[in-house]
Amino acid sequence: MAWNLLFTSDIGLFSLIGLAFIIGMAIWFARFYNRKMLEDEERVRKLR
Length: 48
Hints:
Layout: H1 2-8, H2 10-47
């Protein structure tokens, strides 16, 4: 019953879309900030 409601109702679909969006943002921010930290470390190494 719960799975049927999740995949067929408007509220369930909006919940799935919201969860997917939030998880996608978390992955994107983690990769973005990791890349920026590595770039900053490389810049500091070049200055020394």
